[in-house]
Amino acid sequence: RRSSPVPPAVRCLSAQSCALGMPATAAMRPSLRRSGGRSGKRRCARLVAWATTARLAGTSVAGSSLSSGSYDYHGIVPHYCHVSMDWGPLPEPPDGAMELLQAQVFFRHGARVQAGHGRCWEGDDDGQWSCVNPSGAHGSAGDESSEECYGQLVSSGYEQERRNGERLREAYVKRAGILPERLPDGDGSAWKRLSPEVMVRSTASARTVQSAMALLAGLYPELDSQALPFAQEDAVQAVSTRSPDKETMAINPSMCPSAAWRVQAHFQDLPEAAAEEMLSLCRQLAPGRMNTQECAWWLTHLVDCLMSRICPTVSFTPRNLTVPAHFFSDDSALLRRVWKALDEASTGYFGTMVSGGAFSALASEILHSAEAAARKKSKVPRLMLFSGHDTGPMEPLSLAFGLRGEPPYWPAFASMIILEVWDSPSGPFTRWIYDGKVASGPQAFEEFRKTASGIAGFSRHCNDPDPRAPSASLLGAVRALPRGTAFYIAAAAVAAVAALIVGLVGAVRYANSRRRRRGKELTLQLPFRGALPLDVQGAREIEICGHGSQPSPDP
C-alpha cells in the first residue's frame, strides 16, 4: 500500500526518538510472511478458534499466531498519531456506478489525552496536558486539575475530525449529492428538518461525542464555531447515544454473555511464543506479577502512556523528555517491540471476540441499513455516522470484513472506515474505504450480504457455556453434534430413564409382596427342640408360658 510522505517537520520528533519519525517509505510497505506454528497436537476447539481468528484478520497464517512479517514498527508514530491530520480526498465513484444509495461512516475519535489513570513508570507525573472540555481544563499529569483532561479530546483531535467532515462533504454532498449543500431553513432544529437523511450516533463518551460534533462542523461549515468543544446546540442534539448495556459498538457482555468468559479463555489459550513475549515485557517493565490477560491490559495502558507523551498531535509538554530513555535507545527497539507484541495480541483478541458473536449485533445493524438502502426504501438515512473507539467499532470491523491485512492493525487517531452502497445497471454493489483508500470492492451486494450475514450469524455463540466449567462439558458436547443427532440421543436418554423408573417401581412392588407373604406365617422358637408353626393372622391374644402378649396389628 502506498503511503503518503511524512512532512519534514515531523520526521524527527526529538533527538531521542528520531527513528520513530522516519519517513514512511519502505517500512510502511510491509509484506506478510508465513510464520511456522508449534509442532505437536492441539485440541480441536483451539485450532478452530485460531483458524477463525486468522480468517477474520484477513491474514495468511500457518500455525496459531499472527505475524507482522517484515514490518518492524518504524514509522508507528506518524501513523498512529495521524500527524498528516488529513486522509486526503475520497476515491472517485467506481466504474459503472449510477447513484450512491448510502454511505455508512465509522470513525475513531481524534487525538486525545491519556485515557487511563494507572501508573506508567516512575516519574510519570512530570509534564503537562491541555485538552478540549467544557471547563477548558489543563494541568500537570500528576495534578488534580488534570483529572478533567484524562481521556479528553485535544484541539488537534477536533481538527482531525473536522477535516474528516470536509472530505465527506466533498464526496457525498458536492459530488454525489446525497445531501443538500446547506442545512434547510425553517423553524426548529436544522437536524430535525434534515432527518431522516442523516443519522449520527456515538458511544456515551465525551471524546466520541465531541469528535462527532467536530465532523459535523466539517460536513456543514455553518455549524463550525470557535467555542470548543460544543459547536452549536443543533449539533449536540444531532448526536444520539445508547445506554452502556445496549451499546453494540463495543464488547458488551450484556448483549453477548459469552464475551465475559471468552476474554479469559482467549488469553489462557494464547500460543506459547506470543504469551511468553508479552510476559517477558511485563516482567521487565511492569510492577508485580501478572497473568497473560493482566499483562495484555497493562501493555495497552503502557502504549497509551507512551503515545500520549510522544505524539505531536497530543498537547503534552515537554514531549518525549518525560518518557524513560530506554524506550528510545537502540533505535527505539524496546518501544517497537512493545508495539509489535500488543498489536498482534489485540488482533487475535478482537478476532476471537468477533467469531464469538460480540460484534454480531452491530453487523446485523449494518446489514439491515444497507439492505434497506439497496432496496431504495423510503425514510432510510443516506449518510450514517458512527463515532467510536479503536477497540470498537474500528478494529473489530476491520478484522471482520478483512479491510486491513497487514500491520499495523491498530487504528490511528481519527481513523475512518466507510461502507458505500451504490446502484448500477447490473444491480447494487458495495465498496469499503479505509483511511481514504479503497480497502475492498467493488463487490456485488449479494456477496456483501453473505459476508455480513455470516458475521451476524456468530450471535449463535453468545449464549455458549464456558467449556472450562465442569457442568458445561456434557452440554457443550451435545451442542457440537450434527443437527438432528442430539434429538435422537435425547429421546434415547428419556426412554432409558423411563425404563429405569419402571424397573425400580417393579422391584419395589415385588419386595413389598414378598414382605406381605412372609408376614402371614409366624414361627415361634420354643425352648425345646423343634418349632411350632402358628397361624396368627387375625389373632387378638395368645397365652405363652402363662404370660399374656398383645400381638401387633400388623400380621
Walk across the major sheet and give the strand order. 5-4-7-1-8-9-10
Global Rg? 34 Å
**Beta fraction of the residues?**
5-15%
Question: How much helix is in the residues?
Answer: 25-40%
Main beta sheet strand tally, sense and closure: 7 strands, mixed
Instruction: Show unreliable segments.
Output: 1-68, 134-139, 226-232, 521-526, 536-549
Strand and helix order: HHEEEHHEHHEHHHEHHEHEEEHHHEEEE
Indicate the multimeric state.
Answer: single chain
Computed structural class: alpha+beta
**Shape designation:** globular
Average pLDDT number: 78
Helix run count: 15
User: Total number of β-strand segments?
Assistant: 14
What gap, in angstroms, lies between the N and C termini?
99 Å
A few lines on this structure:
This protein has helices at residues 44-57, 76-81, 155-175, 190-194, 206-219, 233-238, 259-268, 272-285, 292-310, 329-355, 360-374, 394-400, 445-457, 473-479, 485-519, and strands at 99-108, 128-130, 138-140, 198-202, 239-240, 316-317, 383-388, 416-423, 429-434, 437-444, 522-525, 531-534, 542-544, 547-549.
Describe the overall structure:
The chain is of the alpha+beta class and 555 residues long. The chain is built from 15 helices and 14 strands. It has helices spanning 44-57, 76-81, 155-175, 190-194, 206-219, 233-238, 259-268, 272-285, 292-310, 329-355, 360-374, 394-400, 445-457, 473-479, 485-519; strands spanning 99-108, 128-130, 138-140, 198-202, 239-240, 316-317, 383-388, 416-423, 429-434, 437-444, 522-525, 531-534, 542-544, 547-549. Strand 2 and strand 3 form a beta hairpin. Helix 8 packs across helix 9 and helix 10 packs across helix 12. The termini are far apart. 41% of the residues are buried.
